[in-house]
Design goal:
heterotrimer, A: alpha+beta, 2 domains, 5-stranded antiparallel sheet, B: 86 residues, alpha+beta, Folate-binding fold, two-stranded antiparallel sheet, 15% helix, 38% strand, globular, Sarcosine oxidase subunit gamma (chain A), SoxG (chain A), TrmE/GcvT-like (chain A)
């Protein structure tokens, strides 16, 4: 029963509370609502069958590439050959058992819903801010909507992707949230950006 | 230096961990101590092209075979080690 | 005041105040500190490094060797700042350097009188013996006498930013060539980064009176800059210097964001470090004018002609009333013409080139074929000129402008090892083989006339854009005014009066180079090290080529044979803070906080760094007098009641796949494919050389799924090792592996009352020994959240570890504390954890030290003989199986009250404290509440055969020598009764 679940603690929530909900909109920060996150890795030689199964189950077009693809409440972020982060909107804390069962024999599914803290960055200044940390070309031609990358930002491992035009999400390991936030705040200020939180 | 990871694309060298010569192959279990000593300790050190193992630690976490010229750092090819082994 | 009434690019509507060496002056927006000093008739700006000779401004650019000042005061004071590149701001404060007590009267100038002593190789020759005096006496003395500016000694109060850039074309330098290149490529649609070290774009166009399309060149520059600013794919970085070229088309650049302000605005970084990846680069950094080598060429008042031109034309600041020119290049004639146009008296123009007359100069006394042989005055008052016929005359002049030709500024182009070669056409070195992707344009390519530079820029810009797939029409070539570029080879006037300086900043003269050659230091590299030429903060920008010309002359070689040196990054000094960026003080490296961190803070935890993690070290209670009391209480609580410890930082890796068990069998010395589902097993993994890599427990969660833990320190290394094994050694295995360290918050609940505590929390779970024995594991749910329970024990007590997803970790630890309240559950930290494990003889980081084998640590019996595993063969080598090896044992002080020290060496009793008697060392020590005394773990030669023997623990660093008894490393409950209770 859903109401028995403990509320998950958002890793960035205490920091976002310090921001104003109004501003010039050039940098808007938020934490996506609690969602399921899992590492999905194809079993040996099962990549094609896995893609077929996921298409059938979730209606998603699996790409074995550093891409962000989404269908309904499921999204996949390519993190390595035959490896993805699966995102599931509105998932319960024990959600990962379901895809693990559905993909049994085709993929190993490792729940990481708590392992990653995800920060969403929107606004015209978001790409600039990200490029200060990631040594990745964030030009819209080089990193368009649907692009994803596993890299490092400010010495912190990060997975980032562009969800929709000028809306990016960055997943970092949860324990780094405070350090990452400190870097975000300092770097935004250093580049003339005043972050606001989404209302 | 930039390394063109087959999965992630062109990335700065600081994302990678260097291991060394990709040529030595782990001997069979019964190969004996001399063969293992060779495998563990002895490395060629060519001035010129060499195939090396690099790990994309801050990326896709894949081991790569990087063909690099030690004189110029020019990288001729990068493959996933898993595929190179096949 | 020496400011022209009109003209120049300064903004006379914005007067600025500044202070130099304690005196107040005025300048204008658009001035540099140097131009403002000139406008105020300040002619003495520094003292030289070695001889403390008075020095004036030599140049108007970044190559300045003399005018090094300390800019700002207090923590922001920056020594060795070049006055020529400091943009004037209101309230600027600067001080001259390397003088005592004052710039005008410097006691250290006595060094100049002793100058015969300070010849090339002086330090090598003088301070060779005795060596012991070097550190204590010579070096401090030399550093005091021959120094540049001093650091403030205070922490840098400013913040530094870092940025990454990617472009089709990087243009370095926004002079006429760079502007033309950026314009051509930018119009074609290429992504262009244009870097200019100044705020104003235009380069030489700002300092010269040349015309483009019939209008002043600086207006053309402004129009191009405006157009470039409007192009969306063009990024202009002003006040930015490219300081290095790195492999694979990577560049380093420093953007001086706030150096032109008294201090950065709130939040603003002082500087920004750029790493730029450029598919193509055009190096259009211009050229640096070279001095002429003649006696007295360092006297204040002797300046570069291009600098005089820049001060007069750009800044309307006239450095002298009567200016003489000594030129071997046509550009010097243009400077004379510019001076006349500005109404400045030109005392003479001396050009040693016979018959050179690039332009008519009415009213200027010409000395064709003449040379300057001497300079006079404390600050220049007159010069000696030898006319073509040999007659020497004195000419009154307060400034002597020298124009010795131009050296292409290709510095960073040599960073990757391409050696410049001599060009007879321009009498300088040129770069024929720039780094991959780089082209040179304009003066940097040795093509000096304005028409050539713009033509080069347009052509190279178009070519680069086309290479990147951007086709466009080349902008039309503009008309430029006539620009003669004839030049002679580097010029040396032999036999003049006084020293002829080559390196002004390091005080290297022509005679130093002659001496160096006589003593056999004849390669450019030897010359550099022996004389320190080119090794000062200016890195020889004005001196290198002249020195190599002299070297060639003195050694009877052609300069093309002598060659020149390479340059390493950085092109200009870069603040260390810029490299550190955000990462200093508390942000030095990222910090990892466990889910229970906030709870631990509330409990009064003191934290210790474990890699990037913050771990609770202990939880002091009010009234406790020291850490030992706290830690002992925590350890006792675990032995007698129940304690709670956050063990989330242990590395956690999940392996899945049909062959997961097979892989684990090859990774560990013991077997895991035989482990039952729902059971855990301790394992040890070796490196391939047979030494222990890491240890931990592995739990089988399902037939094809394992959960293994690593030590906190080795988590990343083990993950990398597993990836190596499954991707390279055995890619045929079906195994997937991922770090889940961050997914699970995990807490140890340890002590005889731990079962009762858990039962409060999880009343429906059967935790009896029968249902859930030692090394059992289960997956369950707690308040709807997945939970893992392991019956593991590091303390040797009845103990469990509970894991929940980290988002619920805080809730779990609070719930555990709540459930444990009736049992007086006690939080314990890493110190108590250490005490408990030492009491049990468990090896940890101090024992897994990269030198120990499994057998050394007592795990020999675990080493399977029925399978292959990593390290098996090499672990059997005689050296690793030698019975003489130090092995893990326990020690206790014989007198039971002495304190033990980690790191102490073990020696037999009754022998001297020398290395030959060393038999091992103490790895870990603790005060054991159970044993009521200090205990230790140690690695001792043949230790297991020596139980009961007495040896000495000798610590020469702390000066302790304690007689200890050798015992089993397991001090508490050797039978494991409590563990299985």
């Amino acid at each position: 029963m859903a109401d028995l679940f403990l509320p998950a603690e958002g890793a960035f929530a205490p920091f976002l509370e310090t921001l104003s909900p109004s501003g010039n909109g050039r940098l808007v920060l938020s934490e996506p609502p609690a969602r399921g996150i899992a590492t999905v890795m194809a079993r040996a030689g099962q990549g094609a069958a896995l893609a077929t199964r996921m298409k059938a189950l979730y209606g998603i077009d699996v790409e074995d590439a550093a891409r962000f693809v989404t269908a309904g409440d499921v999204a996949l972020v390519g993190t390595g050959p035959g490896a993805w982060l699966m995102l599931r909107e509105g998932a319960a804390p024990d959600w990962a058992a379901q895809p693990a069962g559905e993909l049994d024999g085709l993929a190993s599914v490792f729940d990481q819903s708590s392992g990653y803290a995800v920060l969403r960055l929107g606004g015209a200044g978001a790409a600039t801010l990200l490029s200060r940390g990631a040594f990745i070309d964030m030009h819209p031609r080089a990193f368009p909507v649907g692009a994803a990358a596993v890299t490092v930002m400010s010495h912190i491992g990060a997975i980032l992707w562009q969800r929709e035009a000028a809306v990016y999400e960055v997943a970092i390991f949860r324990s780094y949230a405070a350090s990452f936030w400190h870097w975000i705040a300092a770097t935004a200020a250093a580049n003339g950006l005043t972050p606001m939180r989404s209302a | 230096m930039r390394v063109k990871c087959p999965y992630c694309g062109d990335r700065d060298v600081h994302e990678f961990v260097y291991r060394g010569d990709a040529a030595p192959v782990r001997p069979a279990a019964d190969a004996g101590e001399a063969a293992f000593a060779d495998y563990v300790y002895l490395r060629d050190n060519p001035a010129g092209p060499i195939a090396e193992h690099w790990y994309h630690a801050q990326g896709c976490r894949n081991w790569l075979v990087v063909e690099r010229d030690t004189r110029s750092h020019a990288i001729a090819a990068v493959r996933l080690a898993r595929e190179a082994a096949r | 005041m020496s400011r022209l009434a009109a003209g120049g690019l300064i903004d006379r509507s914005q007067p600025l105040r500044f202070r130099f060496d304690g005196r107040d002056y005025g300048g204008f927006a658009g001035d540099t500190l140097a131009s403002a000093l000139i406008a105020n008739d300040v002619r003495l700006v520094g003292r030289s490094f070695k001889y403390h000779r008075p020095r004036g401004l030599l140049t108007a650019g970044a190559e300045e060797p003399n005018a090094l000042v300390t800019l700002r005061a207090g923590a922001r004071a920056e020594p060795n700042s070049r006055a020529t590149t400091i943009e004037l701001y209101d309230g600027l404060e600067a001080k001259s350097q390397n003088r005592w007590p004052s710039l005008g009267f410097d006691l250290m100038a006595v060094n100049g009188l002793m100058s015969p002593l300070f010849v090339a190789g002086f330090y090598y020759k003088t301070f060779m013996w005795p060596a012991a005096l070097w550190e204590k006496l010579y070096e401090p003395l030399i550093r005091r006498a021959a120094g540049l500016g001093a650091l403030s000694g205070a922490p840098d109060p400013d913040h530094y930013d870092k940025a990454h850039g990617f472009c089709d074309l990087l243009v370095i330098g926004a002079g006429p060539a760079g502007l033309a290149a950026a314009l051509a490529a930018g119009r074609a649609g290429a992504r262009v980064f244009l870097l200019e070290q100044e705020n104003e774009l235009g380069g030489r166009l700002l300092s010269e009176r040349h015309e483009i399309d019939g209008r002043p060149g600086h207006l053309w520059a402004r129009e191009v800059a405006d157009e470039l600013s409007a192009l969306p794919e063009v990024t202009i970085l002003r006040r930015t210097t490219a300081f290095g070229v790195y492999d694979d088309r990577s560049y380093g650049a420093i953007e001086r964001v706030a150096d032109h302000l008294a201090e950065p605005l709130p939040g603003q970084p002082r500087q920004r470090l750029w790493k730029i990846v450029a598919k193509r680069t055009i190096l259009a950094a211009g050229a640096i004018e070279r001095p002429i080598l003649f006696g007295g060429n360092d006297r204040p008042g002797v300046m570069m002609a291009s600098a005089v031109q820049s001060y007069v034309n750009r800044f309307a600041a006239v450095p002298g009333r009567r200016i003489a020119l000594f030129t071997t290049s046509d550009s010097g004639w243009q400077v004379a013409a510019d001076l006349r146009a500005a109404g400045v008296e030109v005392a003479a123009l001396i050009d040693p080139r016979e018959g050179a007359a690039p332009m008519a100069l009415p009213d200027v006394p010409l000395f064709a074929g003449g040379t300057v042989t001497s300079t006079h005055g404390r600050i220049l008052r007159s010069i000696g000129v030898r006319a073509a016929g040999g007659r020497v005359t004195r000419i009154a002049a307060d400034v002597l402008a020298m124009a010795g030709g131009w050296n292409p500024a290709m510095g960073i182009g040599c960073n990757l090892g391409s050696r410049p070669i001599w060009s007879e056409a321009i009498h300088s070195f040129v770069l024929k083989a720039p780094p991959p992707g780089m082209a040179l344009a304009g003066a940097a390519a040795g093509r000096f006339s304005l028409a050539e530079t713009i033509g080069d820029g347009l052509r190279e810009g178009m070519a680069a854009a086309a290479d990147m797939g951007h086709e466009g029409h080349a902008p039309p070539m503009p008309r430029t005014s006539d620009d003669k570029a004839g030049v002679a080879a580097p010029w040396h006037v032999p036999g003049g009066r006084g020293k002829a300086f080559v390196d002004f900043q390091h005080d290297v003269t022509d005679s130093d180079i002659a001496l160096s050659v006589r003593e056999g230091f004849r390669s450019v590299e030897h010359l550099k090290r022996y004389t320190t030429l080119g090794m000062a903060t200016d890195q020889g920008k004005t001196s290198q080529v002249n020195a190599h010309a002299l070297l060639a002359m003195y050694s009877g070689k052609a300069i093309v044979e002598a060659g020149t040196v390479l340059s390493r990054p950085p092109y200009l000094p870069v603040a260390i803070g810029a490299f550190a960026g955000h990462h200093r003080d508390a942000d030095f490296r990222p910090v990892r906080l466990t889910a229970g961190h906030g709870w631990a803070v509330e409990q009064g935890a003191r934290f210790v760094d474990a890699g990037q993690w913050k771990r609770a070290q202990w939880f002091a209670r009010p009234g406790e007098t020291g850490w030992l009391e706290t830690v002992s209480r925590e350890a006792r609580a675990v032995r007698s009641g129940v304690g709670l410890c956050d063990v989330s930082t242990l590395g956690k890796i999940e392996l899945s796949g049909a062959d997961a068990g097979v892989l684990l069998d090859r990774l560990y010395i013991n077997n895991f494919s035989t482990l039952k589902v729902g059971r855990a097993r301790y394992g040890v993994m070796l490196r391939e050389d047979g030494i222990v890599m890491d240890d931990g427990t592995t739990t089988r969660l399902a037939e094809d799924r394992y959960f293994l833990t690593t030590t906190t320190a080795n988590a990343a290394r083990v993950m990398q090792h597993i990836d190596y094994c499954r991707q390279i050694l055995w890619p045929e295995l079906d195994v997937q592996a991922v770090s889940v360290t961050e997914q699970w918050a995990q807490y140890a609940v340890a002590g005889p009352l731990s079962r009762r505590l858990l039962q409060y929390l999880l009343p429906d779970l059967d935790l009896s020994n029968e249902a859930f024995p030692f090394m059992a594991a289960a997956e369950t749910r707690w308040r709807g959240v997945p939970m893992r329970i392991f019956r593991l024990s590091f303390s040797g007590e009845l103990a469990y570890e509970l894991g929940v997803p980290a988002a619920y970790g805080d809730a779990l630890v609070r719930a555990l504390m709540e459930a444990g309240r009736p049992l007086d559950a006690t939080p314990y930290g890493t110190e108590a954890l250490g005490v408990l494990r030492i009491e049990k003889g468990h090896a940890a980081g101090n024992e897994l030290n990269g030198q120990t084998t499994a057998a050394d640590l007592g795990f020999g019996g675990m080493m399977s003989t029925k399978k292959d595993y990593i390290g098996r063969v090499m672990a059997a080598r005689p050296g690793l199986t030698d019975p003489d090896r130090p092995v893990l044992i326990g020690i206790r002080p014989v007198d039971r009250v002495s304190r033990l020290a980690g790191g102490a060496h073990l020696l037999p009793t009754g022998v001297p404290d020398i290395a030959a008697h060393d038999e091992g060392h103490v790895t870990s020590v603790a005060f054991s509440p159970m044993m009521d005394g200090w205990i230790g773990l140690a690695l001792l030669r043949r230790g297991r055969e020596r139980i009961g023997e007495h040896v000495r623990a000798v610590d020469l660093l702390r000066g302790t020598d304690v007689e200890v008894e050798i015992c089993s490393p397991v001090f508490v409950d050797p039978e494991g009764v409590r563990l299985r209770g």
